[in-house]
Amino acid sequence: MQKYRTHTCGELRGKDVNSEIRLSGWIHRKRNLGGVLFVTLRDNYGITQVIAEPGTMAFKELDGIRVESVVTIDGIVRSRGDNINRDMPTGEIEVEAKAVILQSMADILPFQVADDDNSPETTRLAYRFLDLRREKLHHNILRRSQIIASIRRRMIEMGFQEFQTPILTSSSPEGARDYLVPSRLYPGKFYALPQAPQQFKQLLMVSGFDRYFQIAPCFRDEDARADRSPGEFYQLDVEMSFATQEDVFAAMENLMHGLFTEFSNWKVNKPPFPRIPFEDAMLKYGCDKPDLRLAAEIADVSDIFAASDFNAFKSIVENGGVVRALTVPNVADKSRKFLKDVEDFAKEAGAKGLASLIFADGEIRGSLAKPLSDATKAELKNRLGSKTGHGIFIIADNKDVASVILGKVRLHLADLLDLREKDSYRFCWIVDFPMFEKDEETGQTQFSHNPFSMPQGGMEALLTKDPLSIKAFQYDIVCNGVELSSGAIRNHRPDIMYKAFEIAGYDSSVVDEKFGGMIKAFKFGAPPHGGIAPGVDRMVMLLANEPNIREVIAFPMNQNAQDLLMQAPSEVTEKQLKELHLKIVRE
After folding, report:
1. CA–CA separation, 262 vs 313, rounded Å?
2. Among 496, 487, 495, which residue's Cα sits nearest to residue 454?
């Protein structure tokens, strides 16, 4: 017999009855029922029920061992007859214990592993190795491994090659804060951990490689959010030579549809995914990461109020503002308190107010029911497709405020009224981002998003168009309101890059100094290329249906960027500081 096991704890079935077997694992639960000791034994693969008869040595040994201790059990597989547990893959059988070897005794647990005892996250992270034994989290991490394996297989099938890029590199002047690594050999100089392999993957394209991917670790010194882990994260880094925006879309749609179909039984919208221009997204959804599971869209109704006799909104339009409206169902039976709470939410989000029209059976209620003429109410109802039972929510403000706040109200109402399509993944692309924007404080034209994107229209657009009207070949892929990635067709022409930076107020010498490696490479022949980098953690989070990204990462930091298990960040010795030519200056 093998030293530790002949089978795993998820393997035994009815065909194995009367077999002599050996199992090893953790004691999941213990119950003494009528003198018979029932033990569930757990390993990476599943759970098996073990019984120990009273008076046996196996009973005596198991009775004195705490849960979560590691044991090896020799026994005989017995049928459970009519007592099959159909919720367990091994529910047809149980193992009658004949001998028990204690491999490792567990201390008293800081929280229960077999049951959810709502332990604080700080405790869970400090004992993450115990937390990872819990069924749901253990399953999430196994699924993460399977998802990454599927991504790798699918990328290779599409003709992409996997390359590794440096971890120690130079500090980037753009993006988030770098994590810096002091050099021992070069006093006063620092490496940086890469925020992304952006420049390296573009240099690979210049080097003549055609389709690159990498499951890339990235490091950014930024604050945590529910969908973003502080410190480090992983992304599927992708770059393609001689590729248009549509070529990138086709590859990613093939990947995403296949991946999400493989790992979920939810509905996944089929390629091609909707392409939504940035301006339309901001108007219709109030954000550039719309949740398309909610059908309700924001509409501009400025013209209706400009022609109305409702002076409060009419004057806003006459002074350059806008009026935006949103209609949603299932509102007519809600109380005045409900409407007041929604209005308060809008005010907390920055609105001066939130007006409403509620179309109940036989009557119209809401704050605009009396002030508006019947003709205006009828025109609003017709324009927005409102029906009996629907409510219209309206904000009048400047263009940059109205839709953004109404977009937040849209999602808030979706939560309150349960309006999202169930069990579905709705992907879309946000396209046609503005290349430039105006700094509100200085009035200076500056880059809106990625300065290395190719402007639509190339050099001619930069020379002949108003910079604020120029769009970039830049795009985001969004799923269920979660931005999975930004991407772009790159600016591979030095002359176009110099001109774009000139418009944003940068001399060519600044470009040469900050991005010398890229510019130098582009001067030796660069192919048109583009790419994208979807977040692996966010994809797994969506597929696991988890609201918090830490539930799909094996050893995450907490919201304060601390590793409570390994006690990082930590102080280092004076000897280490001296070797690195560093001195701590305390405030």
Report:
1. 50
2. 496
